[in-house]
Amino acid sequence: MNAINLENSEIIQVVFFVLLAFISMFLVLILFFYFSRKKIVQIEVDKKNLEIEHQKELLNSVLITQEEERKRIAQDLHDDISSKLNVVSLNSHLLKTPNLNENEQLEITNNIIELTQKALENSRRIAHDLFPPVLEKFGLNAGIEELVEEFNSTKKVKVSYQNTIDFESYPIDKHLHIFRILQELLNNSLRHGKATEISIQFTTFENQNIATYIDNGVGFDSADLENKKGLGMMNIESRINFLEGKFTIDSKPNEGVKMIFNFN
Ligand SMILES: Nc1ncnc2c1ncn2[C@@H]1O[C@H](COP(=O)(O)OP(=O)(O)OP(=O)(O)O)[C@@H](O)[C@H]1O
Ligand SMILES: [Mg+2]
User: Fold this and answer.
1) Percent of the chain residues topping a pLDDT of 70
2) Which member of 24, 121, 123, 239 lies 3.0 to 4.6 Å from 177 by CB, making a disulfide possible if both were Cys?
3) How far apart are the C-alpha atoms of 121 and 76, rounded to whole Å?
4) Maximal C-alpha separation, the chain
5) Which of 185, 200, 220, 234 is the pocket-test mutation for ligand 1 (most atoms within 8 Å of CB)?
């Protein structure tokens, strides 16, 4: 009888310890899942925060660029238009002066003609800077051809351009974005890369519009985030975002630059 009782209490003890072991394992598992879930959530939150931070930087760069452009337009208007119209106005009043001889009249009139001519040229230049008229009149393809021609005419660089996309059916309000992206890339290639050969290619692949831009310049470390934080690059990125596209930029020192982006 005693022996049976002893066996029972041993079994109870074993069951108790097994149960305890299961409960502890269960608790450890729950704790493990809880903390790893928390870590995953934290990583997600950090990722989202980084994205928000980046979006803020992009927005900031757009605002800064807008402000700079406004400042530049205000300066151009002030220096190249207002000041000339001011002198035109003074000259026009001079014409009213009594007893002007013929020579004086001629001189003042010539002044007015010359200054209005200059003011006209300047206003045309400012308008062209804001929205290249070729885009409105002949579309993006002609605009890019003209841009490429301008760069080629400097003889410092040879730019080749190939395109199989029909930009005529592409929304006109998006033309300027593509144009400005290429303008910035070309300026960077010359200014920073000292490139002598550049290739621009537009193709369609699986219903996607794709642009490939390559220069043979001195390149830069594209993995270094600081290089992506210049206003030019940030503007390119926000324009590509606007076109609902994505981009990759590949560059290493002395290996030129390769940028690919898609757009809709
Ligand atoms: N094609 C290139 N070749 C070599 N370096 C480049 C090229 N494009 C960009 N970079 C590097 O990346 C940096 C950032 O370019 P980004 O266009 O943003 O600014 P930036 O040209 O210096 O100034 P901004 O465009 O505002 O006048 C440049 O300063 C340059 O170091
Ligand atoms: Mg730049």
Assistant:
1) 98
2) 239
3) 12
4) 147
5) 220
